[in-house]
Model the fold of this input.
Amino acid sequence: MTSSSQTLAGPSRPGRFLGPSLDKIIKNVAWRKHSALVSASKSALDLLATLSDSPYPIPSSSIPYISPADANALLHPLILAIESASPKITEPALDCTQKLISHGLIRCEIAPVDPADAGSSNVASRLLDSICRCGGVGDDAVELAIIRALLSAVRSPSLLIRGECLVQIVKSCYNVYLGSLSGTNQISAKAALAQIVAIVCARVEADSMVAEIRTISVAELLELSDKGLNEPSFVQSVQNFISEAVDGYEGDPIILNSSPQSEPRDGCNSGVNGTGECGNGESNDGGDLGGGSTIREDGFFLFKNLCKFSMKFSTQENPEDHLILRGKVLSLELLRVAIDNAGLLWRTNERFLGAIKQYLCLSLLKNSALSAMNICRTVNGLLKTALGVPPGSTTTLSPAQDTTFRIESVKCLVAIIKTMGAWMDQQLRIADYYPSKNLEIDMSSENQYAVNGEEGTANDYELHAEGNSELSEAATLEQRRAYKIEFQKGISLFNRKPSKGIEFLINAKKIGSSPEEVAVFLKNTTGLNETMIGDYLGEREEFPLKVMHAYVDSLNCEGMDFGQAIRFFLRGFRLPGEAQKIDRIMEKFAERYCKCNPSSFSSADTAYVLAYSVIMLNTDAHNNMVKDKMSKADFIRNNRGIDDGKDLPEEYLGSLYDQIVKNEIKMNAESSAQESKQANSINKLLGLDNILNLVTWKQEEEKALGANGVLIKHIQEQFKAKKGKSESVFYAVTDAAILRFMVEVCWAPMLAAFSMTLDQSDDTAATFQCLQGFHYAVHVTSVMCMQTQRDAFVTTVAKFTYLHCAADMKQKNVDAVKTIMTIAIEDGNYLQESWEHILTCLSRFEHLQLLGEGAPPDASFFAIPRSDADEKPQKSPVFPSIKKKGNALQSPAVMAVVRGGSYDSTTVGVNASGLVTPEQINNFISNLNLLDQIGNFELNHIFAHSQRLNSEAIVAFVKALCKVSMAELQSPTDPRVFSLTKIVEIAHYNMNRIRLVWTRIWNVLSDFFVSVGLSENLSVAIFVMDSLRQLAMKFLEREELSNYNFQNEFLRPFVIVMQKSGSAEIRELIVRCISQMVLSRVNNVKSGWKSVFMVFTTAAADERKNIVLLAFETMEKIVRDYFPYITETETTTFTDCVRCLITFTNSRFNSDVSLNAIAFLRFCAVKLAEGGVVFYEKNNESGSSISVDGDGSDGHTFTDKDDHVYFWVPLLTGLSKLTTDPRPAIRRSSLEVLFNILKDHGHLFSRTFWIGVYRSVIFPIFNKEQQMKRRVDLNGGQLSPDRDSSGNEENSWSSETYVVAAQCLVDIFVSFFDVVRSQLPNVVSVLTNLIGNSNQSTASTGVAALLRLTGNLGSKLLEEEWNQIFLSLKDSAASTLPEFLKVMRIMDNIDIPVVAQAYSDAELYSDHGFDCDDVEDDSLQAASYVVGRMKGHIAVQLLIIQVITELYRTHQHSLSAANIKILLEIFSSVASHAHELNSESILQRKLQRVCSVFEISEPPVVHFENESHQSYLNFIQALVKESPSLFAEMGMESQLVALCEKILQMYLNCAAQHLPANQLTLHWVLPLGSAKKEELAARTPLVVLALEVLASVEKDSFRRHLSHFFPLLVNLIRCEHSSGEVQRILSNMFLSCIGPIIMDL
Done:
């Protein structure tokens, strides 16, 4: 120390360090901001100048040789400087503090500081507290100074730092480690923490402040984590820093008192929160220790808090907190340091052993899922030993010693995993153990049924049975007593052996021999054991099965809720313990419930699954052994999609859940004692231990290891329950789930050790141990549902079989094959997805066996045509036994196997160009001999053993087998059928499983068969379809109850392949298979009919004639001979049959097929009407039933109107669609059959159904007309190119069909007029649409039909109905006008030249190389079309006039004024339209030119105008004559006169006379041309009629209107006429009518 420092700080020892530091602080401090610090520092310097060291230490002072007051004054500036948060001030203060501590100048016990009363603590405690609070102020130098000071404080033997303050120091170092931005500081903080733990452990072991301190190795500390900071320069620097701190103490230690501390102390409120990295720890409660030295108490307290720091987890708000993870890892590393530095005390002292159990074990359990930690050091060490010396390293062991050492290590690993498995098996057997005696009937219970004289239990059923004549004949009491004794004997026998008891009672004539009588006996007899009843009802023998059916059929659950029904059903017996028996009972119950409640579910399958769900819920909710109860949400989720793919209403399922949970399903009171006896084994008793998985169809998922808080909490509670006991406690864990934590840590090292040893060593003992290790590891990981780990072990073993490269196989690989087979047999229930690897190995093994035996590959069979059977014997010698004949290796298949391939390749020998060496061939042959160690029995045993797999395992097995088979079949070079044949085998083996399981199996197989059935390889597809046929034949041997759908699901692959396959051979094969199955198993086909008809429906539309004919041949036989079977159990198949027949009617290959199909449809209608499909009853018990009309009715009624409609609709609509068939014979036949059905069976239809028939069946027949009309597209005046074909089709269809259809429509409507009266407007609309058709024949048909309709119903029609008829005619006349006018406008853009001009234009075009025909062709064609449309339009309008004229003539007395008014409107509108049309002079001239070009007749426009006006005038004239009152009432006189005036004006217009009456100038008038004369001649009758009508008007009326038409009469006199008739009538009118008027003037 320099003399200047001594002068500055005085002669005392503390002054040598305090003086320079205080001087530096004064120089660096801001005086105004830190005035108190400056003042304290100056005061301290002044004090130091006067102080000298005391000759003896002062115990109460923090600085031993200075008084307490002076010590406080000297250290107070340091505290203020550290708390200033200024690095320039803080750093010298920290440096000074570290020097004072390292030189032993601060000596005391450091106690926690209370912020509320800081003055009561010694100054050293406050100084250390300020250092911990400093937190580094973000400066690297300050952070490093803090670490150095704190480490020096812990290292100093002169400072006794108590537990809370020690934890506070640790927290401060944590904060630096986690929060510092400097890598060096992070390493320094971590190393300081490790050194602090090592110091504390050494002192705890020595129980003294003076102990041998081991300096930690920074490099080793960074091996596990923080490898990114592991730079040599950093490591060396920090190592020097730690060494300096440990070895830098220069003071004389003063041994402080470490006597036991009995008083508990408050926790340290350090306030070092930082970012919350370490948490708050736990206070040092002396009660935790129960006495001991202070040093050991403090060590214990630090250890406990480190454990708690390691168990801090992320919060929900911040689930991925990186700082928490780093702090957790650091805590675990410090705990490892503590264990490494722990001595004998930690292994013997009860308190420290308790701390390890209570805190360390809990920490390790909670953190065992952390991949960042490697806590299983034992396994890690064994792994390193088993793997041998790392490359580049040296060892003192000899090679033999090294090998032995490695094998022993592998043995240890195998022993570990084997022990795990053995303990797991033991725990699982305990957890699932149910004493077999619980499943047996207590024989002592028979005593209660023993008969003691007359006081035995009488049976009500037998005492009052009507059929028991023996009892009724027994007259004496003795006989009655004997009868009862014998009857009770039968009951007692039944309670032991049910079948024997029933046989005894039947033979003794105590019960009847029919199944129904036995069912009544079981249901009503007291004293029968309910378990035996259930056992008997579940038997599969024929008679007990019939009894069970009778028993269930006696259940009346109509209107019951499902929960009530199953509760009512199960109250009389206990479900048997065998799953197959439960399945049969539940299957029948579901059928019965759906029969009683047909609208409850879509099928009985829904009720069947729901029944299992309810039973499982009852078990789950009311069994005390079930801890994790099923919630309502779970119950609803488990039953999703069970109603034919749809969900049941959540409200319904929720209500069912509440019923079961609140009220347990129990049997009758008689069984209460037996029930309570077996309460703990209810799952086993019911055989429902796996039913929940069957219902949910979900595999148990792997749970996250860190999420198993329940198990950890349970273990922690055990620890806490034993807390405070002095003796050591061994905790026996019984929950096998604890193994998951252990396996998660050690599985990867074990896999590496086993794999490397097996790969590198050929030693028999070593390979045996490795394979055993794999076997045990697969067992443990499989049972614990650790999918990833299980698959890793199984895949590794499968690869080591070397079956994919057989030429390189060794004995250890054969042993691996044996191990694979052993795993398959012993752990098959848990393998799940790993089955694929095992089955792949078995497939390859079988392939090698066949090659060794010389069998030809499967591909050779596929390549041989099926018809060339004579070639097969010639090819077999090509494959002699390879093991005996080496020259047989020229086979390409064998060469491919010898070449080998990768494990993951689906085909071995992919590299076909690779060369095969003689050595490979020899190795291959010898390896085939090695494989002889494994026989076919072991191989086949795996598949036969599939019957013993549980429900989840068999589904996984089938999935894997299908995947392997798919890979085999899809091989481009070597397709194989080994797995396919095994699929058929296991399907046979497992077909008798309960429906729930078999459904899941078949869902997998169905997809497989469809996929392979659509294969491009025809031979493979044929093989698969034939295999499916075999399974279907086997399956159809099983009887299916009604309302189930499983047969349909089973046959669905046939349907899908039939619909999607492009191969005619496959489709034909499917038709033949279905035909064979149906005709041979017709008695058992139930829901399968749906698939059968779908196959035949697809075949009916096939493009191959032979397939269509083959399918129809079978269809014909089904309908003719087996029709009752179609609807035996499910009536909906009737509609499938109908749809199939309708499809056959559309067959384009053979009209006979179509006609026969139509005949069969009529046959189906007859059966439907007779009640062959829908059930008839004599009595009308249902309000929805429909009475049958007709004289011959026997009172039958339909009991279900909805079913009635459902069956008729597809039949009738199908026939309706056939009426548009292009084949005339089919059209005629379909029309005839359709309307015959309606006529013959229409009395069965309700009014509502008739409305549907008209809308969906009858009216669509006539929509063909509208469709034809719309095919003319007139967009932009362009014609549709297919107008000619459209017209031809329309004419053909109209002429052949409309006549019959319209006639049948009228006949049906008239026959059922009272029922279908509401359809009159629609029927009339159809007929008027026919009348409005441009086709003359169709329009005539409509006229005839309408007249026939009104002729038959005229007297029945009301005024409103007549209005509807006439309005429809009016609409028909008007509806054609817009479209017609649009057609007429086409001519506006067409210029038709006169004939002479056309010829000259043709010469002009020919001179220039153009063809006039090309230019005018389109225009002329369009004009020709307009001519045709105009003619058709005129004909329609005239027909409408004709119809209304005839209707009036026939029914005039039934018509009202309103009806007449509508008729007048029709006449007026048509006449006006005719006049307007004739006024189009330009259009007329164009059309005349067109007609002259095409040499066709012109449109009868004039005739149209004349006829319409003449009919109009005749109608009014007839009205005047026949109904003068009505004429007068309607005021039609003016209308009549106006019409006559219009007719006269039309005539004058034609004669070209437009002169006014007052014009007297006379001109020469040119004579009319021939055309005008012809037109005048045509108009003459009309004008004569008009003049006659005017002349017939009453005199007064004539006088009143004369002024209007007199000028017209004058013009008539002046114009030219074609005949003298007009002049004659004019002369008469002037003489008789006008003359008298003039004379009266």
